[in-house]
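[step 3/7] inverse_fold.run input=structure_tokens len=403
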């Protein structure tokens, strides 16, 4: 019965994708040879004792030398648990700025029945020790200051390549179900997830946390990096490395999770990024959510499980409609709704970390949400709902002049 349910779920997913809008084509040329990266890299195990194993795999050349990438790997088998099926789903975990390969992150997903790989994207190994053959570090100089250097010596080139290679390696393991793999990343890892989702169509779901595109328009780096670049440098960085160039080509469902006052990825740039995804997507915009390597949001697990395991899906809030001072939105849900709220702000987008949000309760009648509309001078607003599992999902963020 379980296998039958999974089969029916897969048919429904395929059917829903068949009627979705077509994804945008990738740029005529991209920095990465995705076909080459789709072959599993050479690897070696470093330590296969304990619940989480360590390994390294071969990355792309950096400044003339071949690189190694350190990673942690965990699965039900490494935890000493016999899986209920011969093959288990897989997940690729992408850390953010200041982070590294987190063994505890891989273990969390292994406990949920996944084979998980978490790689370091700063040329470092266990305990953050610099590898002799490591790739670029993750400083601002590596991410932005190298823009005039060779494309293949820049951080985003290597980070994206190493995420795709980690996926290829994970898929090569006998116990991994290649038809059920997921991708998620936090902060700069969310930024990378947005790019990889447009390049590597082998994933069944992608979930960027915080990260988005349009970084030169408004982000934590607009003033500190892009405003100090020459116009040609900023344009080159945007064309090569901004997620807005790639995420519109994603063919899998994309789940967006961010905080309303995020210091790095503000709501205007975030809304423009989300709008580029033509296919299935959902949102969890959380009021004043802090920024960090947080691994245990309930929405993390529910978002991924619904596509990979066929579990009960999260509610989906339609695009809100405003008429005669009232707003209205429909919710597609299999669970009981618990609350509904409107959040709006009238402050400028450049003040995203500090700006205040006003919250108003909305009325739920069956699967319809309604209430007073936000004021005409609102610069951003959205609806959120919680369900009986206390999971929070939201509508898209509504920003004037952003579809």
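[step 3/7] decode complete -> sequence:
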């Amino acid at each position: 019965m379980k296998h039958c349910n999974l089969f029916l779920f897969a048919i429904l997913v395929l059917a829903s994708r068949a009627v979705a809008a077509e994804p945008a084509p990738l740029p005529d040329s991209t920095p990465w040879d995705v076909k080459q990266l789709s072959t599993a890299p050479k690897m070696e195990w470093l330590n296969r004792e304990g619940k989480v194993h360590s390994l390294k795999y071969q990355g792309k050349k950096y400044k003339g030398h071949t690189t190694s990438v350190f990673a942690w790997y965990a699965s039900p088998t490494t935890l000493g648990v016999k899986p209920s099926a011969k093959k288990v789903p897989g997940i690729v975990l992408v850390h953010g700025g200041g982070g590294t390969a987190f063994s505890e992150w891989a273990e969390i997903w292994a406990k949920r029945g996944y084979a998980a790989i978490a790689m370091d994207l700063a040329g470092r190994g266990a305990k953050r020790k610099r590898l002799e053959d490591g790739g670029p570090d993750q400083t601002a100089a590596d991410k932005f200051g190298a823009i005039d250097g060779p494309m293949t010596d820049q951080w985003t080139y290597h980070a994206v390549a190493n995420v795709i290679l980690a996926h290829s390696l994970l898929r090569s393991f006998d116990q991994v179900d290649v038809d059920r793999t997921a991708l998620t990343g936090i902060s700069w890892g969310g930024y990378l997830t947005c790019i990889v989702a447009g390049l590597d169509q082998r994933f069944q779901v992608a979930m960027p946390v915080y990260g988005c595109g349009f970084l030169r328009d408004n982000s934590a780096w607009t003033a500190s990096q892009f405003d100090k670049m020459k116009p040609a440098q900023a344009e080159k960085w945007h064309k090569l490395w901004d997620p807005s160039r790639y995420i519109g080509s994603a063919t899998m469902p994309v789940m967006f999770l961010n905080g309303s006052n995020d210091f790095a990825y503000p709501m205007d740039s975030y809304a423009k990024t989300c709008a580029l995804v033509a296919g299935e997507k959902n949102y969890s915009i959380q009021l004043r959510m802090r920024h960090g390597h947080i691994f245990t949001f309930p929405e993390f697990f529910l978002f991924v499980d619904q596509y990979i395991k066929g579990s009960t899906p999260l509610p989906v809030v339609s695009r809100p409609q405003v008429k005669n001072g009232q707003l209205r939105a429909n919710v597609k849900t299999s669970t009981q709704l618990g609350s509904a709220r409107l959040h709006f702000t009238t402050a400028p987008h450049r003040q995203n970390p500090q700006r205040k949000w006003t919250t108003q309760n909305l009325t739920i009648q069956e699967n319809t949400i309604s209430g007073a509309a936000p004021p005409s001078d609102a610069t951003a607003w959205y609806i959120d709902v919680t369900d009986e599992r206390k999971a929070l999902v939201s509508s898209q963020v509504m920003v004037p002049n952003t579809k």
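[step 4/7] annotate
Residues 17 and 279 are 7 Å apart (CA to CA).
Residues 1-19 have pLDDT under 50 and may be disordered.
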